Structures are given as C-alpha cells and as structure tokens.
C-alpha cells in the first residue's frame, strides 16, 4: 500500500526528489510503502511451525502505522515543504547589507523563521508588509551607519509599522513614544520643530539605523513573533556593525535595548542609555537625557557630519 499526498505542483516537485518504490518500507515523510504481509504464507508452504509463523508475523514484517503515526508523518512532511519553500524565498534586502550579512539567510534558524512567517501570513495579518520588513537596509549603506537606535518589535496596529523602529508612515499620527521623543528633541535641540507626522525616514537616510530586535508581529498581538529567530538575526546585524565599524553611537532606551546592546564593543563605540520613551517610563530618565545633542557632539569629535534631526 502506498499513500502519496501531492497537494499542488510545488509539493509534486518536492516529492519528485523522493521517488517511491513498491515492496519496501519508505521512511520518507512523503509516502509509506508496506511489503505484502507474510501472514499470507501458510504453514504448509513454508514448513514453519505455528510458533515460528507467529514470531515471523510479530518481528519480520512491518505493521500498518497507527493514526497518531500518520499524523506525525503528515506534520513532518508539511514542515519539510515549508523549509524547502523558505530556502527559495528572495529576501528584499539592500545590496550592501546582503554582501555583509547575507550568509545569515542560508542558516537553519533563518530557514525555520522564514517558514514560520510564511505560515503566519497565510492565516493572520502580519505587520509590516513583506516589502517593508527590511526597509531599514534601503535607507543607507551598511558602511554609512553612524547612529543605532534599538527597539523591540513593530507596532501591531494597522497603518503603523513600516520597518523602522518608533517610526510610522505618513499620514499616521505619531504614537505616544514617538511624541515623547519629539518632546525631548524640542528641549534638547534648539530650533527643532514637530514635523506633524511620524515618519523617521529622514533620519534613516542620514545613517541612523532604527532597528527593532524583532522585525514582524501578528496584528494586535504584541511580541507574538519573539523567540522565533529574529533576535538571532538582528544580533548578527549589531555584531557586524560593532566588529567592523568604529565610533558608532548606540542609543539604548529601556532595559530590553540595553540587554541586547551587551554584545556591543564599548571600546570601539559610544553607548548612551536611559529609560524607554514610553509614557510609562519617559519621566524616569528619558526626559532630559539630551541624547540627540550628545550624539551630534560625539559625531563631530570623530570627524563625522552630525545628524539634522529636523530633516523629517
């Protein structure tokens, strides 16, 4: 008996790599082939005693799998198909970033992550849209990064997340944390004016990397994509920047960002840290931190052009 489950052309292509043959037991997740039962051989034709025949039935030929085994086989088959599909997914990342960190996309954890995200998008709304997940890599070349702001995970409401932490696309109103960032800027940087929107692309294009630790989220389910592999990937990004560039300014707001920043080489880079700009914690140190003016001072000392925080 042979059970095949070719549900579509992609699965058929996958199965073509695992051809089935009759008269053998196949351990593939795609099919199960069982030998003709030895029970059909009679004692007279074999000359075996009843005891020997019973032993043969118990130990010599494979049994039909039970429903639980079939369910596990089907689960493994679909997981294998998802992993194979994930290997063929083109990651829309900026070319300079691909050259430096592209090896991450070939690793097992990222294959599993891509399969998970693909399955999530089939069943739920996921933010941001696929073309915006890596938008931060298209704002500036990896070698041109000057400042790094570490966030946690994307906004989980409609029309908000677009690949940059703390940022929302026009015309979406700035969320509370971003409003507090603007409030601090207005007291820290003389002449700063509220832009009337929440899109921080203007900073990103000047070399401010606005990087969330987790790059996707299920709609209305904050932190729903944590511990799926994104943290490993973004750690690799931070590690590359820390080891290959010098004089970057890392802005670590809140305990989560500060923990993630533990891999930064503090002998090569500048670390500015305080509380998160959330309304729940901004008054514990974020207000009055002067991180924006301090960042520009550090950039000037290293001979780099300061950030125009008004360019939004």
TrEMBL record:
Highest taxon of source: Eukaryota
Catalytic activity: a 2'-deoxyuridine in double-stranded DNA + H2O = a 2'-deoxyribose 5'-monophosphate in double-stranded DNA + uracil; Hydrolyzes single-stranded DNA or mismatched double-stranded DNA and polynucleotides, releasing free uracil; a 2'-deoxyuridine in single-stranded DNA + H2O = a 2'-deoxyribose 5'-monophosphate in single-stranded DNA + uracil
EC numbers: 3.2.2.27
Coiled coil: none
Domain (Uracil-DNA glycosylase-like): residue spans on this chain: 138-299
Entry annotation: catalytic residues: 153
GO cellular component, one term: mitochondrion
Gene Ontology molecular-function annotations: uracil DNA N-glycosylase activity
UniProt region (Disordered), positions on chain: 42-65
Example of a GO biological process term: base-excision repair, AP site formation via deaminated base removal
Keywords tagged on the record: Acetylation, DNA damage, DNA repair, Hydrolase, Mitochondrion, Nucleus, Phosphoprotein
Major location category of this protein: mitochondrion
Stored SMART domains: UDG, UreE_C
Gene3D superfamilies hit by this protein: Uracil-DNA glycosylase-like domain
Assembly with partners or alone: Interacts with RPA2 subunit of the RPA trimer; this interaction mediates UNG2 recruitment to RPA-coated single-stranded DNA at stalled replication forks. Interacts with PCNA; this interaction mediates UNG2 recruitment to S-phase replication foci. Interacts (via N-terminus) with FAM72A.
HAMAP family the UniProt entry points to: UDG (MF_00148)
Purpose of the protein: Excises uracil residues from the DNA which can arise as a result of misincorporation of dUMP residues by DNA polymerase or due to deamination of cytosine.
Family named by the database record: Belongs to the uracil-DNA glycosylase (UDG) superfamily. UNG family.
PANTHER family per the UniProt record, alphabetical: URACIL-DNA GLYCOSYLASE
Protein name, per record: Uracil-DNA glycosylase
């Amino acid at each position: 008996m042979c059970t095949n489950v070719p549900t579509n052309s992609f699965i058929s292509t996958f199965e073509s790599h695992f051809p089935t043959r009759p008269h053998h037991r196949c351990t593939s997740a795609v099919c199960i082939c069982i030998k003709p039962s030895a029970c059909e051989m009679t004692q007279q034709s074999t000359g075996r005693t009843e005891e020997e025949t019973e032993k043969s039935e118990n130990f010599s030929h494979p049994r039909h799998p039970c429903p639980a085994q079939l369910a596990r086989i089907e689960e493994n088959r679909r997981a294998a198909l998802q992993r194979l599909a994930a290997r063929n997914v083109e990651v829309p990342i900026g070319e300079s970033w691909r050259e430096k960190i592209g090896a991450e996309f070939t690793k097992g954890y990222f294959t599993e992550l891509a399969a998970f995200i693909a399955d999530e998008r089939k069943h739920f709304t996921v933010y941001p849209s696929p073309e915006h997940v890596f938008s931060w890599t298209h704002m500036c070349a990896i070698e041109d990064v000057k400042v790094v702001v570490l966030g946690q995970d994307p906004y989980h409401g409609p029309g908000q997340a677009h690949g940059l932490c703390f940022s929302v696309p026009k015309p979406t109103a700035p969320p509370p944390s971003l409003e507090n960032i603007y409030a601090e800027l207005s007291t820290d940087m003389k002449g700063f004016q509220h832009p009337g929107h929440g899109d921080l692309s203007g900073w990103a294009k000047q070399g401010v990397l606005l990087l969330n630790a987790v790059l996707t989220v299920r709609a209305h389910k904050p932190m729903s994509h944590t511990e799926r592999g994104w943290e490993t990937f973004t750690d690799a990004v931070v590690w590359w920047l820390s080891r290959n560039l010098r004089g970057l300014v890392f802005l670590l707001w809140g305990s989560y960002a500060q923990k993630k920043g533990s891999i930064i080489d503090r002998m090569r880079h500048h670390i500015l840290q305080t509380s998160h700009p959330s309304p729940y914690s901004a008054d514990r140190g974020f207000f009055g931190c002067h991180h924006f003016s301090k960042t520009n001072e550090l950039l000037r000392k290293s001979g780099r052009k300061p950030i125009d925080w008004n360019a939004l």
